[in-house]
Amino acid sequence: MKTAHEILKQYFGFDEFRDPQEEIIECLTSGEHALVIMPTGGGKSLCFQVPALMWEEPSSPRSDSADQRPAITLVLSPLIALMKDQVDQLQRRGIQAAYINSSLTRSEREIRYEAVRNGKYSLLYVTPERFRKPEFLEVIRQRTVRLLAVDEAHCISEWGHDFRPDYTRVGEFRSILGNPTTVALTATATPDVQTDILRQLNLDPAEVQVFHEGIDRPNLELRVEEVWDADEKEASMLKIFQRWLGEETSGSGIVYFTLIRVLEEFSERLRAEGIDHVCYHGDLDRRERRSIQEDFMKGRTRLVLATNAFGMGIDKEDIRFVVHADVPGSMESYYQEIGRAGRDGLPSECVLLYDQRDLNTQIEFIRWSNPDADFYQRTYDYLVNNNEQVRAFGIDWLRERLCDRQRHDRRVETVLSMLQRYGIIEDETELGAVEVLGPLPKELADETRLSAKLRNDQKKLYALVQYVQSGEQRREFIHEYFGVPT
What we know:
The protein is α/β, with parallel strands linked by helices.
């Protein structure tokens, strides 16, 4: 078996691991479970990719052909786009990796199922929803899963900031797979979420090593500037640009916005000032987004105005500043986004431009993200009893009947998204063929549970206000909030 350092050099071109990657790999290869909390871009993926390549030999010395198939590392990820990017990168390095998800055609999935059955692939990426498919279960049972990597593990917890119902079944999945060595990885998890992750995985905390890498980087200056209007926001931005984007400086920066409309407004302002930049948000074509990201990563573009859609795959060392032009929705989002600055260890700044009025936008978002049980039931009833009209007239028609003609209300989108996550509808984005596949999940009819989640989201936003008010103790506030060891 090749050593971890040999794998690192051969496939990834690095001579040394970052702390604590090597320690995590040693933990996993010795059969111990791990919970890894590491900022985005900190190298979480290597922690399970390297062991997967170390285990490429057949899983057993016995002579029958089934046992001569090498062990496989199964990676659970909710992000189809990121899954594809990671697999593409691995394949370019000559690594046997693949993904199986809903983006593939049926024939493409069957080809990959057969390849898995025949012993191909060291790493297989799937969404947790794949475990609903009997054909997948039949195939994966024919391989020895040596390591289960649960990426974006905060999605396991309904108290996390991106809850995915199928992630709550990962403990069941582990049992199906024979309870393999498991590593859960995330960039953000409060102490409560960490506890919930281990509980959902059916792991005894005493049997799990926790590796917590906080944003404990003295090169990052954490600052809050209180502003009162768009003019003051623009003035603050221009000062930051002057410090970092001059001809005699190098590096790049990101300015985060909550609303696309506000992003575009500031883009016009900055163009009028002669500030070269690009804009990135979820309404852009996928190819355009990929092109913008590639230009930024390669240094052809130094400044990006973006919504939080800009983040996946951003592992760039020389980001000199991250500015939040609007109040983020939670400490989790803020923590994740400022972690993209200063990864080369050089001075960088993270600036929150705080306008108290921006809280109103986030309060509205929280309301939209937390429909009550009655709204879930009414939406579900429309999908069942008025299916023909929903198919014919679409989401705007549905919103008019459910939201008192408030066309900006996004509670309908939340309900459709959650029904899709629970497998009750196939795809909420195209209602022209929507079909209801089961009853309303009891979790979405439980008003006590829904109210508790609403209060939890409100507390997260209030934590941001506390962060703003923490003055010179901001770093300490972050560490306490996320339970970073001191």
